[in-house]
Amino acid sequence: MSWKPDVTVAAIIEREQAFLFVEERIGGRRVLNQPAGHVEDQESILAAVVREVLEETAWQFTPEWLIGVYLWRHPHSGRSTLRFTFSGRVDAHDPARRLDAPIIATHWLTRAELSARSAEHRTPLVLRCLDDYLAGRRLPLAAIAQVAPS
What we know:
By secondary structure, this protein is α+β, with helices and mostly antiparallel strands. It contains three helices and seven strands, in the order ββββαβββαα.
């Protein structure tokens, strides 16, 4: 039996004690998530998180730390997600840039504001990753390696 989790990346971006989130429409429902998405074929994990943040928020992201690697199984579909969550900074913003189709808006929310909207979280990973970041979990980016074929 073959098991193929969705490999995804997410970014935790803090500014003045608020965090960057996207509001998106998924399956007809409005949900909140960190800027996140799938790693594409032939793409490194670090390149994927930089690309996803840009496509979903129009911010240029520089990853600084790996917060954690999370495995989550959707309770209804049974699909598994393997998520690599990073923290870092954003530098340049292009407000004229068109965001990915499912994105409705971006929001800077405090942890309390995010928690108050828990019914809107896309998955339990949204709060778990933020809480790990706030607890000080940090791994060097060198923990992620792209190994080329020999």
